[in-house]
Amino acid sequence: MAAITTGVHHRSYESELRLRHTTAARVRLALAIVALVAIPFAASPFWLSVLDRIGIAVIGAIGLNILTGYTGQISLGQGGFLAVGAYTSGLLVAQYGLPTLLAVVAAVVFTALVGAFFGLPALRLKGLYLAIATLASQFIIIWVVRNWDAVTGGTASLVVPVPELFGFQLSSNFRWYWVILACAALATMVARNLFRTGIGRAFMAIRDQDIAAEAIGVDLTRYKVLSFAVSSGFVGLAGALTAHWRLIVTWERFTLDVSILYLAMIIVGGLGSILGSIYGAAFMVAVPAAIDRVGETLQGSFIDRQLPAIQLGVFGVVIVLFLILEPRGLARIWQRMKDYFRLWPFRY
Fold first, then answer.
1. Domain regions of the chain by residue span
2. What is the pLDDT of residues 11-62, one digit of tens each?
3. pTM
4. Does domain 45-342 have CATH number 1.10.3470?
5. C-beta of residue 235 within 8 angstroms of C-beta of residue 82
């Protein structure tokens, strides 16, 4: 009788270091790529817009997960850092005439520096105290945006010209889809490989036990501040893309509600998981959009009148259910499904 092999067995370091260990994983990746390429040709304008929003949210969620899920540093300032990226890139293009690509890169760098500055309290604070400190950064950044009239325009909206990339005007959601998809794919690959390096492993050591990490030679000051900078850089990219995609930048798009939404994304998707950031962002953007569509078909009904309350209710219930039933989120559910079939017939 032929032997039955279950699980994944590595016979070399090269095999263990591969991003995709099995044929099934490579097939799933290929199918996902085919689906991502085909979807925009079949999607309606509404859902194409939702896909663009999901792509931008994926980048921001990955950034927050690097900080919270992988380094263990709680942050409630996501909306503020998104505002930094959006206003930096929008102002550089609208007022100084910089090319869009250069403005986006500058926004990423500047947001990383701002994030590193606000990450300094992490050197002395942990847990709830750090959460309150990052919450302060949210309010400080929005206050500066609203009151620095000479630079940001204050409460007035910042109008950004239609961006141009490699000779093409990004004037439609279809064209934006490919740009956002490329940025999200790049962010995913960078983040995935970051945790295969010494820097990423230092982040995870701090998350698991910072005193033990310091005992084995991890410089807590350097890596905690660096984690805020790297995370904020991803968020700055998401903010810059938001500015150029929407063409109008206003502080009202970057309130505390946005920070809480991004925190919900990584909780629902799975803390400490890059794929979880993708699943959580897609879930938390697509579900409210689907509720909106249902409301449009039921105009004048009770559901239509109570739509905002229903959305908030679903938002809260989903977070509570995941915290109780599956704290590791959608990524863990998907992992269990894969393990069930990969370990068959020894599913237990």
1. 45-342
2. 776 666 667 767 777 888 889 899 999 999 988 889 999 999 999 999 999 9
3. 0.89
4. yes
5. yes
